[in-house]
């Protein structure tokens, strides 16, 4: 069986790698992939990007199933186009993906279906937004309505920062059409976690819980990023809280969409704030797996991912069994110099080939690539090609040991100007320490 994974980041490397481990899979194509997927056994990169060309490729190669990784193809309607051509694809339709592609759609949807989230007000007029800021205390959260490549959410600690964010989005148009409208949202206090499920539009299969670290620097300081590391499971989510999240958030989302004539099939990511009273409120929805949460989650997954996706496509997720490694997994992102605002490209990465050889056959560790490519002149040389470059991921008996194992991998890799956080998993480690 041949499969296709759409995307070229760390999430897609992890997905393609996990799918390739299925005994029924002969090859996984990745469009466009990265240096990691180019080097991975059973994976092959293809340089095709347009939806019509991808459909033609799938038809010619007799691809059994296509899995969509990132949000942009979903927003462009790739699932609708594939389904119209009679092809099997895993991901939500363009209409369903509005939960991610429009913050305003998501907020109004949550209001209609009584799903707990932060209060908000929407604005297209910058002057009215400035007046609102002057009348409210900070912190405030300013969000662009559309997709903004991780740059559309600003947590303003002061009124000055809030005014600056409004000007950047609504006046200076720094985010283009994604920033034609904004919402200003109350700032929620608590612990942020990632809650990801698979759904066939009727049945829901929760994946392992996880926590992402968004800020660039240790201790949740510095600018927001796409994610500097993640680990799984998130120990803050007890059995009762898990039940609460499913009953009050996940099930109402899927049922609410169905009531509005939208069938949702795919991964659904709920970014949640666990409040001090152990309740959960929605910060955002993503209509895909998170990145870098996918990397530790896939390292822990013991079940055949292909079988789970087949169940989802066929509407039989209620018959699916999912099995997890009971150990923790933790991934540390190595980011490029200048990330997130101006990441530098084409720095040579050293130590990767030796590390790949060292880890061969050891399923407790994996280096997932994101922003990498092969040097066109020297095919053995791997270069940086984006903001988040690598995610060194490891298993361990607990979060602390998984953390230690992941940072040991980092010590063996180098490229000029790389940035890492040294505290990935700190909240989970602290929590586990207190609970003993």
Automatic annotation (TrEMBL):
The ATP-grasp domain, residue ranges: 107-314
EC number: 6.3.4.13
Record-linked PROSITE patterns: ATP_GRASP (PS50975), GARS (PS00184)
An annotated GO BP: purine nucleobase biosynthetic process
GO molecular function: ATP binding; metal ion binding; phosphoribosylamine-glycine ligase activity
Cofactor: Mg(2+); Mn(2+)
EC category name: ligase
Catalytic activity annotation: 5-phospho-beta-D-ribosylamine + glycine + ATP = N(1)-(5-phospho-beta-D-ribosyl)glycinamide + ADP + phosphate + H(+)
SUPFAM superfamilies registered for this protein in UniProt: Glutathione synthetase ATP-binding domain-like (SSF56059), PreATP-grasp domain (SSF52440), Rudiment single hybrid motif (SSF51246)
InterPro entries linked: ATP-grasp, ATP_grasp_subdomain_1, PreATP-grasp_dom_sf, PRibGlycinamid_synth_ATP-grasp, PRibGlycinamide_synth, PRibGlycinamide_synth_C-dom, PRibGlycinamide_synth_C_sf, PRibGlycinamide_synth_CS
UniProt xrefs under PANTHER family: PHOSPHORIBOSYLAMINE--GLYCINE LIGASE, PHOSPHORIBOSYLAMINE--GLYCINE LIGASE, CHLOROPLASTIC
Family: Belongs to the GARS family.
Protein name in the entry: Phosphoribosylamine--glycine ligase
Record organism: Nitrosomonas supralitoralis
Gene label: purD
């Amino acid at each position: 069986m041949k499969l296709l994974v759409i995307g070229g980041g760390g999430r897609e490397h992890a997905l393609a790698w996990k799918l390739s481990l299925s005994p029924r899979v002969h090859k996984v194509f990745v469009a466009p992939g990265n240096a990691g997927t180019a080097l991975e056994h059973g994976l092959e990169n293809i340089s095709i990007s347009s939806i019509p060309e991808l459909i033609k490729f799938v038809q010619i190669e007799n691809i059994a199933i296509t899995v969509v990784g990132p949000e942009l193809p979903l927003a462009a309607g790739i699932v609708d186009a594939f389904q119209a051509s009679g092809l099997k694809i895993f991901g939500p339709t363009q209409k369903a993906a509005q939960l991610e592609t429009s913050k305003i759609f998501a907020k109004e949807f949550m209001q209609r279906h009584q799903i707990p989230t932060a209060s908000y007000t929407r604005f297209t007029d910058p002057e009215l937004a400035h007046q609102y800021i002057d009348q409210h205390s900070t912190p405030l959260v300013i969000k662009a309505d559309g997709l903004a490549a991780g740059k559309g959410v600003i947590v303003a600690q002061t009124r000055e920062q809030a005014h600056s964010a409004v000007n950047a989005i609504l006046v200076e148009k720094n985010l283009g059409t994604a920033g034609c409208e904004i919402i200003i949202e109350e700032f929620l206090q608590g612990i942020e976690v990632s809650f990801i499920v698979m759904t066939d539009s009727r049945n829901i299969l929760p994946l392992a819980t996880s926590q992402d670290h968004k800020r660039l620097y240790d201790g949740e300081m510095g600018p927001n990023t796409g994610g500097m590391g993640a680990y799984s499971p998130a120990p803050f989510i007890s059995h009762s809280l898990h039940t609460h999240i499913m009953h009050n958030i996940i099930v109402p989302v899927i049922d609410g969409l169905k009531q509005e004539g939208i069938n949702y099939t795919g991964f659904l990511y709920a970014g949640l704030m666990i409040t001090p009273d152990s309740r959960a409120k929605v910060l955002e929805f993503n209509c895909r797996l998170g990145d870098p949460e996918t990397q530790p989650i896939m390292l822990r997954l013991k079940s055949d991912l292909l079988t789970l996706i087949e169940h989802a496509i066929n509407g039989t997720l209620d018959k699916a069994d999912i099995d997890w490694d009971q150990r923790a997994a933790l991934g540390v992102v190595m980011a490029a110099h200048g990330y997130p605002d101006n990441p530098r490209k084409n720095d040579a990465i050293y130590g990767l080939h030796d590390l790949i050889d060292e880890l061969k056959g050891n399923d407790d560790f994996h280096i997932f690539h994101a922003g990498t490519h092969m040097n066109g002149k020297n095919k053995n040389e791997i270069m940086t090609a984006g903001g988040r470059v690598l995610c060194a991921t490891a298993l361990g008996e607990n979060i602390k040991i998984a953390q230690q194992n992941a940072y040991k991998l980092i010590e063996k890799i180098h490229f000029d100007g790389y940035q890492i956080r040294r505290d990935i998993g700190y909240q989970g480690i602290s929590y586990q320490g207190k609970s003993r």
